[in-house]
From TrEMBL:
<feature type="region of interest" description="Disordered">
    <location>
        <begin position="98"/>
        <end position="166"/>
    </location>
</feature>
<feature type="compositionally biased region" description="Acidic residues">
    <location>
        <begin position="107"/>
        <end position="126"/>
    </location>
</feature>
<feature type="domain" description="C2H2-type">
    <location>
        <begin position="46"/>
        <end position="67"/>
    </location>
</feature>
<dbReference type="InterPro" id="IPR013087">
    <property type="entry name" value="Znf_C2H2_type"/>
</dbReference>
<protein>
    <recommendedName>
        <fullName>C2H2-type domain-containing protein</fullName>
    </recommendedName>
</protein>
Length: 203
C-alpha cells in the first residue's frame, strides 16, 4: 500500500501547517471543489486553517459541521479516479509554479543567456511526500509538468498514533478506505503479515 507524492504536495503540507502558503480560498457564492489529498481548510478566517486533518474525508466533516453556508461538489465513493488524481496533482503544482518560474527567471538573469538549470521531466505514476500527512495518492498528468518522485525510506509518513504510543489502526484503515485501498495490502496478504506495524506508513 505504498504511494508516492509529488514535491508540490510535500510543500503544500509543510507550508499550510506553517501558515506561509497563500492558498486560493473557497467562495461562499459558488460551488467549490475539494481536491484529492486536501487536509487543510481553505475558508477565510477559519480557526482551523492551520490544522492538518488526518484525511480529506475528515476535512469534509469539518466543512459540513462548521461551514454549512459553503457548497462543495459531490464526490462518489470508492476508488479515486485517475482524473481526480490528475486534477489534484495539477492543483498542488499551481500553488508553486509561478514562484518557481519567477525564481528561475531571476537565476537566468544573473547568468549568461545560454546557461540555466536542467529540469527533471520524469513522470510519476502517483505522488510522493516527505512530510506528515497520512493521505495522498495523486497522479500527475503527462508531460514536462510532472514532478519528480521522492522514494527514500526517510520520507515515509509516520503512522497515526494513540496517546499511549501504539498505532491507531482505526485511523490507518480509515485512510486506506478513503483512498480505495485495503488493509492488509496485497503484498502483506501474500506474505501473511499485518500492514501498518512499523513507525513509517507510506501512503
Amino acid at each position: 500500500m505504498a504511494f508516492k507524492l509529488n514535491k508540490f504536495y510535500d510543500k503544500y503540507l509543510r507550508d499550510c501547517k506553517a501558515g506561509t502558503l497563500a492558498v486560493p480560498l473557497w467562495n461562499e457564492e459558488e460551488t467549490n471543489e475539494i481536491f484529492y489529498g486536501e487536509v487543510f481548510c481553505r475558508i477565510e478566517n477559519c480557526g482551523s486553517c492551520k490544522t492538518q486533518f488526518s484525511t480529506t474525508n475528515n476535512l469534509r466533516h469539518h466543512l459540513a459541521k462548521y461551514h454549512k453556508d459553503y457548497i462543495f461538489a459531490r464526490v462518489s465513493g470508492g476508488r479515486v479516479s485517475h482524473e481526480a488524481r490528475t486534477k489534484a496533482n495539477r492543483f498542488y503544482e499551481s500553488l508553486y509554479v509561478q514562484d518557481e518560474s519567477s525564481s528561475s527567471s531571476s537565476d537566468d538573469n544573473d547568468n549568461d543567456e545560454n546557461e540555466g538549470s536542467p529540469v527533471d521531466d520524469e513522470d510519476d505514476e502517483t505522488c510522493s511526500e516527505k512530510s506528515s500527512s497520512p493521505e495522498c495518492a495523486l497522479t500527475p498528468g503527462p508531460g514536462p509538468s510532472s514532478p519528480p518522485s521522492v522514494t527514500s525510506e526517510e520520507d515515509n509518513l509516520p503512522l497515526p498514533m494513540l496517546e499511549d504510543g501504539t498505532v491507531n489502526h482505526k485511523a490507518v484503515r480509515r485512510v486506506a478506505l478513503d483512498q480505495g485501498q485495503r488493509i492488509p495490502c496485497k503484498s502483506c496478504r501474500k506474505a501473511k503479515k499485518d500492514c501498518a506495524q512499523t513507525n513509517n506508513f507510506l501512503m
